Amino acid sequence: PRSTCIVTAAPSMEEPFRDGAPGQDRITRVGFHHFGADSAPTLLLVHGADTTWERSFSRAIPLLSRHFHVVAYGMSGFYPTEDTTFRNARAEAERIIGFIDSELDGMLTCLYAHSLGCQTATYVAHHERVLTTILDGAVYANTGSFTPAMARLEEPLARFLASDTLRKIASFTGLPVLSGGVSDAIYLGASRQSYRNTAWSNLAWSADLHTLEPRPQARVHLWWGERERRAVRPTQRLMTRIFPSLQSKEFRGFSHGDLCARHPELLTQEITVVARSHTESGPQDQSAQVDHSPGR
């Protein structure tokens, strides 16, 4: 059985979200934004649904680019400067694999993905194009016969998540799942079809988790917040079959998206430790316990 590392963190004191990520060097092809030194190990970032690469990673990129050559990927349909439609996670994976093959000689050092981006990252890792893959908040979402209804609700749900109404409900009820960081990151410029296709992508990926062939050599880490544990645990069980060396970590007190949206220093620290553990001295001890509580 695989052990799960539990991580706790002090409350973030980050400033409110701002659009834009300073220091971009270039765009080599549509959707791939580069930061930091070319000589550093390459880290690819993939955002989740209903957001953009800037809204997800603008706080973390200046920190991450001190250690990596960072490539932030903008998914089709959630890319404000291009008129595109999100089709499914497999299509996004094909774009990323093409980028890795043409510009990185077929191998990426580290891939970090959040939420819907975890679906794309699963396929990239399964094609063995990355040394280390980190899946953060990979919620299992096999909605079955409810998928058509879920598809119709995706756009209204995104608008609700970004609304002041949600903030008032969260403030009044104290519900932990309603993360302010996630609400700030919502992007409402996608097409209705892109929103709907995320639901169908959820269904296809959830089904694929039962059928993908095992990849014993793949180094994959699964992270989640304590408050989304029940939604991610099915993914953990299925991922262990596909990636037998899967390493898991829970972030105590966190909701879906908190690590990515609200704790850029901790995100940078955790990614750096994982990437270096595989490139310098082999996989981490799966039983290690890490504590970022105040005073430590």
Describe the secondary structure blueprint for this structure:
Layout: E1 4-8, E2 26-29, E3 32-35, E4 42-46, H1 53-57, H2 61-64, E5 69-73, H3 89-103, E6 108-114, H4 117-126, E7 130-136, H5 147-161, H6 164-173, H7 180-185, H8 192-208, E8 220-225, H9 229-242, E9 247-252, H10 258-262, H11 264-280
Parallel strand pairs: 1-9, 4-5, 4-6, 6-7, 7-8, 8-9
Antiparallel strand pairs: 2-3, 3-5
Helix pairs in contact: 3-4, 5-8
Name some characteristics of this structure:
single chain, 296 residues, alpha/beta, 11 helices, disordered C terminus
Would you mind describing this structure in some detail?
The protein has 296 residues and is of the alpha/beta class. Helix content is 40%, strand content 17%. It contains eleven helices and nine strands. The chain has a nine-stranded mixed sheet, sandwiched between helices. The radius of gyration is 18 Å and the shape is globular. The two termini are 29 Å apart. Residues 9-22, 173-180 and 281-296 have low confidence and may be disordered.
Overall shape: globular
Share of β-strand residues: 15-25%
Distance between the termini: 29 Å
Structural class: alpha/beta
Largest sheet, spatial ordering of strands:
1-9-8-7-6-4-5-3-2
Number of strands: 9
Provide the gyration radius in Å.
Answer: 18 Å
Which runs of at least 5 residues are low in confidence (pLDDT < 50)? 9-22, 173-180, 281-296
The H-and-E topology, N to C, reads as EEEEHHEHEHEHHHHEHEHH
**Mean pLDDT, rounded to whole units?**
81
